[in-house]
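Data deposition worksheet. Section B asks for the primary sequence of the deposited chain exactly as it was used as input, without tags or linkers unless they were present during the calculation. Section C holds the resulting structure in token form. Section D is free text for depositor observations; keep each observation to a single sentence. Incomplete worksheets are returned to the depositor.
Section A, Depositor: J.P.
Section B:
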Amino acid sequence: MKAKFLIFVFMFVIAFAMATPFVSALFSPFINVAGDANIAAIPLQKQAKEGAKAARTVADTAKTAVDTTQMDSLQLAIYKHNKAVDDSIRVDSIMKSKSNGIESPVTYSAEDSLVYNAKTRIARLYGSAKMDYQNMNLSSDNVSMSLDSNLVRANGTSDSTAEGGIKGKPEFSLGGQAYSSDSMAFNFKSKKGMIKGVYTHQEEGYLTGTKAKRDSSGVVYIQHGRYTTCDKPHPDFYIALSRAKVRPGKDVVFGPAYLVVADVPLPLAIPYGFFPFSKKYSSGLIMPSYGEESDRGFYLRDGGYYFAISDKWDLKLLGEIYTRGSWGFSAASNYRKRYKYSGSFLFSYQNTKTGDKGLPDYLEQKSFKIQWSHRQDSKANPNSSLSASVNFATSSYERNNLNSMYNPQTLTQSTRTSSVSWSKQFPSIGLSISTTANLAQSMRDSTINLTFPDLNISLSRLYPFKRKKAVGKQRWYEKISMSYTGQLSNSIYGKEDRILKANFAKEWRHGFQHNIPVQGNFMLFNYINLNPSFNFTDRMYTNKVARSWDYAKATERRDTLAGFYNVYNWSLNLALSTKLYGFWVPNKKLFGNKIQAIRHVITPQVSFSYSPNFGARHYGYYDSYQYTDADGNVRLVEYSPFQDAMYGVPGKTKTEMITWDISNNIEMKVRSDKDSTGYKKLSIIDELGAAMSYNAATDWHRWSDLSVRLRLKWWKNYTFSMNAQFATYAYELDADGKPFVGNHTEWGYGRLPRFQGMSQNFSFTLTPDKIKKWFGGAKDKEDDTGSTDDEGPDPNVESNMDDKMERGKHAAKKRGGNIAETDEDGYMRFNIPWSLTFGYGITMRENQQGEFNKKRMRYPYKFSQTLNVSGNIRISEGWNINFSSGYDFENRAISMTTASLSRDLHCFNMSASIVLAPYTSYNFTFRCNAATLTDALKYDKRSGFTQAVQWY
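Section C:
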């Protein structure tokens, strides 16, 4: 018996020794990880295959190397035992390869420990465990993985110091979707899972649920969930969902739901709904807004459909309908081609019906609006460009548009301008061509000034006498240059209802103008610039207006004569200019060494111009007719058939003009420690100039008025400028005692030129920083960049003081960082950012409507003043108040006065705006910030269209 037992033990040791390479290869990673308690990683499938291969190799070697006929009883027993073991290993490896669903290596780690149970084939990871498999990532405090069932379970660990009493909650991500949960179970092979306490982020929203199930396609089914766009751990609001189906990256569909704000359920429930989460550019419905308007009744507006046609352009169709018959629709589109062009287009049509049909107050108005904006990328074509800015609307559109009622700028806009332009350059020859279409629309009287097309052709300056191969010095005639500018225009002015019906040939104005300047630039005596020039202008018209007297009707008759008419004029000019410099060095004993020098620059300029009298009969630019009035007097009327033409008509007076202009500039050079050169320049008078002219070819008012200009740059951010006019000729009295401007100068009567007026505008913005700077309470920005302060306690010494409060005390003047400024007692400083902007304009002119002072021979002066005030106050974080107002001194009334208040409520935004003058209205809006819910969670309240709010 003892011998048999020894034989059995001996055989078992031999069999175990032969199978040791496979066993050690299979379990050594787990043994090493458990022993070292460090991070470990193993590709399980690869090790399993290598172990099976080793087992087969052992079995095959044993089979081919041993001949059972040559064995004794002991050897035969050992052989049979080994063969049985090899067969069992082969079967296990085959079954394992068939049943294991792991298709790629699994990488895992744990900070505490890893325990593997070879019998149950379950691995358990403890302490900040992490597991990665294909595109799945899992991290949790505790993770268990079954190699047979392909099931992974994860949960956190109870910890009273952690948030929620649990630390290391499972964080799971698969295919770009991340989930947080209290506990979870997931199957590698089926991709299904069960999650408790799920929390996931979908686009702008956050979804939570008590229990969730994930199917193999990635769809998550949530029970008792919450949806919110608030990113706080405890959200300000959420939509409570009884059940929901989430398709990641697409949408969430839910059953009965209700709104909860500040943990208070509200009686706002819906039976079902959905939120889109698509990251892709997609089409969809646009929900309308509803309300009531006093004249048109209840309405649904701004609802329609959005078409995501392609990545380059889209289309949005909206409509509106009212219970009293009014309706409208609009189409808006955006387009963009990268590195080529971009733009937007809007067309809106409204059919507005007010009053009761069949009664006198019934009114039906049809209006429309067109907006087009186009911009070409500069990289698309450097020599060609197309741009457009079109803003056209019928005069009744803004009055019938609800959005315009609460936008004072839009409602009070008096003029709209539109333009479309195209240009093309030919750099090789210096030629450029451009064409534009311009439209100016007056909203007050519904008149339109349309120019279409306006073609411009220009040829850059060229030197016709310049040698191609210049040798030696430049000849004087080589400095003569010339250029060309041509303009072709068609325009019409009239009411908007007849523009499209007007006859293009008869009612439109047409013209083609050419301008050819020839000039030269020469230097005389090395100091005087001499600039002679010759200018030729030619105009081509397709019609002219002939006037005559209709004796039958006793009125003037105008006849439009079609044809080709050429109108030209020319002029000669000669200008001389130079610069005179004067320097003055102050006496250092009197003024010190701060002022180094004062420089005075005088720029005088004299020009001579000549043009003939184009009013002579042989030019044909002027004509006349005579008639006998009712009193029997013969009247002669002179006129020009081209005075209403596109480019006008040349003057009918001869010009021999002498013009002089003088400009002065005074600067001072002083020492400065802040400048790198050690000196800086200060402007005393940036410009003080005057100009006047004398026409020797006329007998009436040969002298022009004197114009004076002044510009001062004494402040860094403000330039003072003023222009004033002084009349040369004095007032005289006619036979009836009425004043008129005679032909005698003011200095002829011993008086200075008569001051005619001036205008000046001031603008100033007041802020707390400026006030502090004025009274020495603020330092420059360069002083605010320090990161530490020598004052206060040493931060390296341990103490029981609050470091943040101490740093706030000793760094109260610093604005950087997130530490609140505190005073010497440790309280936070009172600080309300605000700004106040004042705008003041004054105009002084002769009031020729007032009573004339015959003693002083002067009219009284009239002052026109305007005052505008606007400001911004930020009373606290999230609160913002804006206001603007003004005062009209002439009408003695307050001008347009508006005020708005906005409040950022983290997840919501509240705003209110009011118009106090000249009419009164209000607008209140409360809506969600997230784009997903901004149309669903909102509240708008506006004053009625025809209801004026009485505030006082």
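Section D:
The radius of gyration is 46 Å.
The mean pLDDT is 80.
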